Amino acid sequence: MAKKILIVEDEFPVAENLKALLSVQGHKILEAGDGEAAVKIARKELPDLILLDILLPKMGGFDVCRILKSEAPTKHIKIIMITGLGKMGDVETAFQHGATDYLIKPVDPERLYKKIEKAFAPPA
């Protein structure tokens, strides 16, 4: 079940790793290196899922999430926040802004695949 996934990550090696992990599963990958670009691409491309870093240039991930979740055309997009920040407050903030799920770096491939599967699973 290939999806259109937007990877929003300013660290090139991390972005490339995510791209490789998802491309091998047949997903169509879009990329943004900062928050402003992420919002523009999401509005234009309407991806199925966004893997969103929290610490980004130009606009932080929490703001990107809040903006996209507040607009009708983009509010259905699943957003998994990805960050090196593992503090509980960050997890709560991510969910308050509308995030679907949360992953902590370094990203474990199996956890990533499970989180994506869970994001698209029909509600129980």
Rg calc? 13 Å
Structural class determined from secondary elements: alpha/beta
Strand order of the largest sheet: 2-1-3-4-5
Number of helices: 5
Order of helices and strands: EHEHEHEHEH
Shape: globular
For the sheet with most strands, the description reads:
5 strands, parallel
- Cα(first) to Cα(last) distance is 19 Å
Strand proportion, as a percent range, falls in: 15-25%
Helix content: 40-55%
Low-confidence stretches: none
Round the mean pLDDT to the nearest integer and report it: 93
Compose a concise summary of this entry:
The chain has helices at 12-23, 35-45, 61-70, 88-96, 109-120; strands spanning 4-8, 28-32, 49-53, 78-83, 101-104. It has 124 residues and is of the alpha/beta class.
Protein topology:
Elements: E1 4-8, H1 12-23, E2 28-32, H2 35-45, E3 49-53, H3 61-70, E4 78-83, H4 88-96, E5 101-104, H5 109-120
Parallel strand pairs: 1-2, 1-3, 3-4, 4-5
Helix pairs in contact: 2-3
Structure characterization notes:
By secondary structure, this protein is α/β, with parallel strands linked by helices. It has five helices and five strands, in the order E-H-E-H-E-H-E-H-E-H. The chain has a five-stranded parallel sheet, sandwiched between helices. Helix 4 (88-96) links the parallel strand 4 (78-83) and strand 5 (101-104). Helix 2 runs parallel beside helix 3 (61-70). It is globular and about 30 Å long. The model has no long low-confidence stretch (mean pLDDT 93).
